Amino acid sequence: MGGIRGVQRLGCLAAAVIAAVALAVPGAAAAAAPVSALPEAPGKHRAGVDFTGIVALSNCSGSLVRGPRTRDTDAALVLSNGHCLESGMPKAGEVVVSRRSSRTFTLLDPSGGRTLGSLQATRIEYATMTDTDVSVYRLDTTYAAIQRRYGIPALRLSTARPADGTPIRVVSGYWRTIYDCAIDGTVHRLREAGWTWKDSLRYTPRCQTVHGTSGSPVIDAGTRLVVGVNNTGNEDGARCTFNNPCEVDRNGAVTVRHGTHYGQQTYLLARCLGAGNEVVLGKGCALPRP
């Protein structure tokens, strides 16, 4: 949307045209926001945040991630948004668990300038747009195998909430672009059309994410840990509608911030990853259950 920041609702032709223009004209993507974009040299990004562990989906962005109990021999996981699912956006209250998938992901090199290869899913481990906007795909290969073949490690998920004011990078594999800003604040509830998300991350104005950046990891620039996943922004100034999320405080007061962009925290996901990299729902895991 612009709102939820995939490209699926633009239609295949529109998405292809936008992508072609932005990649053919170096200034096209940058015109929408101050970003660090290709073809910057590797290592130029502050705190060493680059495209390591970043993947591109057909309609969104994503990242190769691991949790605090993940082993190198575990099947690897890819993180993106729930609204980026190949089957379409989950309804409010819907939770997808262990659904077969053969989706492919394009793995980028650290500079973002080269494609290293394709990774393939075997199933959707977990996905929802309730309370958060997340999808987790299980791959047919391990972290160790990816490291051996491509020399690419996974990004690590933080188990802690990020503090307001934390410098962040939002890294889009779809656009091969890095947005540089900070967490402006934590939103009690973020509402868009029929979906409501809890404790959303509001970005400072420098992160003007665009369609296709959905699913990009939100990386703490200091620790290089993943603290969130990019998902939405208010495009037109409308109130709580599709592509126009609104903020709702603890007293129910609604605030509309035209042009403001948001992500969803991922510390709950990190805490729910158990043995074998499975999302273990139930006691000790606060993610929504089916």
Q: Any overview of this molecule?
A:
The chain is mainly beta and 290 residues long. It has four helices and 17 strands. Strands 10-11-12-17-14-13 form a six-stranded antiparallel β-barrel. It is globular, with a radius of gyration of 17 Å. The protein starts with 11 loop residues before the first helix and ends in an 18-residue tail after the last helix. About 14% of the residues have low confidence.
Please give the count of helices.
4
Mean pLDDT: 88
Strand proportion, as a percent range, falls in 35-45%
Straight-line N-to-C gap: 24 Å
Radius of gyration: 17 Å
Main beta-sheet strand count, sense and barrel state? 6 strands, antiparallel, barrel
Unreliable stretches:
8-47
The structural class is mainly beta
Helix content: 10-25%
Order of neighbouring strands in the sheet with most strands? 10-11-12-17-14-13
Draw up the topology in text.
Blueprint: H1 12-24, H2 26-30, E1 35-37, E2 54-56, E3 61-66, E4 75-80, E5 95-100, E6 104-108, E7 115-128, E8 134-142, H3 143-150, E9 155-156, E10 167-172, E11 177-192, E12 195-203, E13 217-220, E14 226-233, E15 246-248, E16 254-255, E17 261-265, H4 267-272
Parallel strand pairs: 3-9
Antiparallel strand pairs: 1-11, 2-3, 2-6, 3-4, 4-8, 5-7, 6-7, 7-8, 10-11, 10-13, 11-12, 11-15, 12-17, 13-14, 14-17, 15-16
Short summary:
This protein has 290 residues and is mainly beta.
List keywords for this structure.
6-stranded antiparallel beta barrel, mainly beta, globular, 290 residues, single chain
